[in-house]
Fold this protein.
Amino acid sequence: MGAQHLPQPLAGSPASNAYRLQVAAVIDETADARSLVLQVPDELRDRFRYKPGQFLSFRVPVAGKQLTRCYSMASSPDCDALPKVTVKRVAGGRVSNWMNEQVQAGDWLEVLPPAGHFFLNESHLDAGDNQLVLFGGGSGITPVFSILKSALRTSARPIKLIYANRDEASVIFKDELRALAKAHPEQLEVVHVLDSLHGYLTGAEVRQLVRGHAGAEYFICGPAPFMDTVEGALLGLGEDAARIHVERFVSPPDPDEVQAQDAAARAAAADSACEALLVELDGEQHEITCQPGDTLLQSCKAAGLDVPFSCEEGFCGACMCQVRDGATQLARNDVLSAQELADGWTLACQSRPSSARVHLKFPD
């Protein structure tokens, strides 16, 4: 499959909430990872504003299917003029290999607006003694690097980065990290952990590396075993779970699987006699009707409510809302933690009412 060489497109596709953006530059980072810099037209600047650590979702046609994949931005909104995502090859990865082999500067890609809840925000300024400890494993450095650059630019907080890789050749952003450490010797400490020299990172090593950083704000992204090791070690030390932020990516199923799952969930919810949805949005309350089997998002859109959403596939988290009263059924979830589910959060695009009345609140 070759890259799409498309004519100058219109701004976007309101029906799918996706836009075509042009690739401004391609940067080969390592032998199996490259970055794509995207050109955002002026009329879409606000739509593509992002927070350090968020990701973009790409829709790519493969063998007659439209696959969706998420890639974190390695760029920083505080430092970089254009957004940049970094894509590492995955064995058998249909989209990641295509991104690395076929995409060229000048190509157009179908992109969803920024999303994700793994980001640096103002509330983190009050974390502990204002320390920031970042853990990146392999290509998991991407959102962590975005956070690191913004923190260096916008604050004086001490920052420690622990970056694990197979070997020196697989270290992404090696030169940039070296330059940043040299430019900020009093603020930034970078620790490289290489499997080829040190073996896999252990819980005991994590505890040693964070000694003296109790109460810091932690951000973790990388392979699942790496993240589990780091998170488990931090929790074992008594660190507050609210200050441990973990980014977990799961590739969405193929469209035919999604359709089958949606049909089963719709059938299961078709008998629910939901009489009304009470929706709190932007400080206002709306009482709307719902059709049997429709998701919360479908009902809100049918009523003309401008609720937040993006992928509509259950993996970006843009449509998170809280069930204040009533009951719902969640078909698919790759975003919400066990604690968030316990606190009543759900995904409007994947959730259907299962009680006569449901009261929802979208974040302000």
About this structure: The radius of gyration is 21 Å. The chain is about 25% helix and 30% strand. The longest helix spans residues 255-269.
